[in-house]
Design brief:
Number of strands: 16
Structural class: alpha/beta
Shape: globular
CATH class of one domain: Alpha Beta
Number of helices: 23
Radius of gyration: 21 Å
Distance between the termini: 43 Å
């Protein structure tokens, strides 16, 4: 298995090279030369444990890794002490219909779905470095809308041969997300708040990645850039696994026959999580429809409905901050596939987005998008209503992002009448990461904006649920990172952090 770039179809690199680099030199994203078809093997795979399934899928894509290296990565990343048993859990809701199934992806160290990839990416990267850049130290640059930052910091904490630098929007993450990052332990980590929104942080990081002078400065000191965002194939690959796992759990526990289709609903910001489901479908997993759920920053909803991607719009700070994004980087990978892997056409769209703020993919590609995707959005009021409704009808507590997915799934059923297809709804974070918004949806008058931990206690008492200990224990951790910078200063702070700048 080799890899090419969305903006250079002639390129061919090994898996270890693309994981080490993160992004292609011309700004494109790495994609597999060809996706493997495992549709004929689904029945044989249905009884595999999570770790066995992950190893089987990784071997298809990481062909320059040995079997022993893949086993080493999987067993260390998904150890029971990190995830308390199987890394993901599938919960079925019985109220109204029996076709809604919640894929809980937040039982890892940072209580968010990013752990599923960012616990294993450090192992992928260290193995890759030993193959493709044995004398280099990797500098992991991360732009985060909340969850990726903490998951990357925790995943790479004190990993030899790596340094991790995270940038997040100053007022664009929840108080709990901010505290998770500000109190992060480790000798090789650094965190900076950026004035502006996530797109400002992401633009700053992308600019650094493609700055030849910056790369030369790092090379002089035996550093090289890599990424922990989902632009890195090593971040995206692990996410494919849990859609197969969810399907097999439905076959085992809910009477689904192997080969019967499901729908997948995903709260979507940077498009990586739902793209992983698309890749699973292309590999043979029977997914009928992808329900792409956005909050008030509905650039993806509008794109799916019109074929025009237009970031020239107001930006909203919402109760689901990990989705507060106007430039969904991973959409580039989908459009590359749907355009017939035409890197010239794809590059033109991306150049127009950068120069003019929009692009139009035309009727042919739009028809392909709409054949498999449904796009919907909801505002904070509808998000709160979904949290309240699911709690009172199903006694299940949603976080704000998963609530967006539930509301858009409701819209999908109303629009299509398709309530019979079993639907897996990706649950991306513990409700306690967004405790003020969740508590406010249930008991609006109980919120104390200045007492996040008091709100945790109230939500526990109200619902009889328990907050994860790793969140409750943050109260007593000292703040290590409290610097706010302009996005134009990001490059200089990278050099300063590495000890090679003023």
């Amino acid at each position: 298995m080799q890899y090419k770039s969305t903006r250079n179809s002639e390129l061919r690199l090994e898996a270890s090279q693309v994981i080490t680099q993160g992004i292609s030199s011309e700004g494109g994203l790495f994609v597999p030369e060809k996706l493997p078809d495992i549709s004929s093997e689904l029945s044989d795979m249905a009884e595999l444990s999570y770790n066995e399934l992950a190893s089987k899928i990784f071997k298809l894509f990481l062909t320059d890794f040995t079997d022993e290296q893949i086993s080493y990565c999987v067993e260390n990343a998904y150890a029971q002490e990190k995830f308390s048993g199987e890394p993901v859990k599938l919960k079925s809701l019985s109220a109204h219909d029996g076709n809604k199934h919640i894929l809980e992806l937040w039982h890892g160290p940072t209580c968010a779905f990013k752990d599923m990839a960012l616990q294993i990416l450090p192992y992928f990267l260290t193995v890759s470095l030993s193959k493709s850049a044995p004398n280099k130290e990797a500098v992991i640059l991360v732009a985060t809308s909340g969850d990726t930052g903490k998951a990357a910091l925790e995943g790479f904490r004190d990993v030899p041969g790596t340094k991790v630098i995270v940038f997040y929007p100053q007022d664009g993450v929840s108080p709990m997300q901010k505290r998770q990052m500000a109190t992060q332990e480790g000798k090789n980590v650094a965190v900076y708040a950026i004035e502006g929104n996530f797109d400002d942080a992401q633009a700053a990081v992308k600019k650094i990645f493609t700055d030849s002078q910056m790369k030369a400065s790092l090379a002089e000191h035996n550093f090289m850039f890599s990424s922990a965002n989902s632009i890195n194939w090593g971040r995206l690959l692990p996410q494919i696994v849990y859609y197969f796992y969810a399907y097999f759990r439905l076959c085992k526990g809910e009477g689904l026959a192997v080969g019967e289709p499901i729908n997948v609903a995903v709260p979507t910001g940077n498009f990586g999580n739902i793209l992983a489901a698309y890749y699973a479908r292309e590999m043979g997993l029977p997914i009928r429809k992808f329900i792409c759920a956005s909050n008030s920053n509905k650039v993806l909803t509008d794109f799916i409905n019109t074929g025009v991607y237009d970031r020239r719009r107001d930006f909203y700070t919402t109760s689901s901050p990990s989705m507060d994004i106007l430039i969904s980087s991973n959409l580039e990978r989908l459009l590359y596939a749907l355009s017939g892997e035409n890197s010239t056409v794809l590059s033109g769209w991306m150049e127009r987005l950068s120069a003019r703020g929009y692009y139009d993919v035309g009727s042919e590609v739009l028809a392909k998008v709409q054949d498999i995707f449904f796009g919907g959005c909801c505002d904070d009021s509808a998000t709160a209503k979904a949290i309240n409704s699911i709690w009172h009808n199903d006694a299940y507590l949603l976080d704000t992002h998963t609530a967006v997915a539930f509301d858009v799934y409701r819209q999908y059923v109303e629009a299509t009448g398709d309530s019979n297809t079993p639907t897996v709804i990706a649950s991306t974070a513990s409700p306690y990461k967004f405790v003020s918004s969740v508590l406010g949806a249930l008991k609006p008058l109980n919120i104390d904006d200045n007492d996040e931990y008091g709100n945790i206690s109230q939500l526990e008492a109200l619902t009889g649920t328990k907050a994860p200990s790793q969140l409750k224990n943050l109260r007593d951790k000292p703040v290590r990172f409290d610097v706010t910078i302009k996005n134009s200063q990001a490059a200089s702070y990278v050099l300063k952090t590495l000890g090679i700048g003023e």
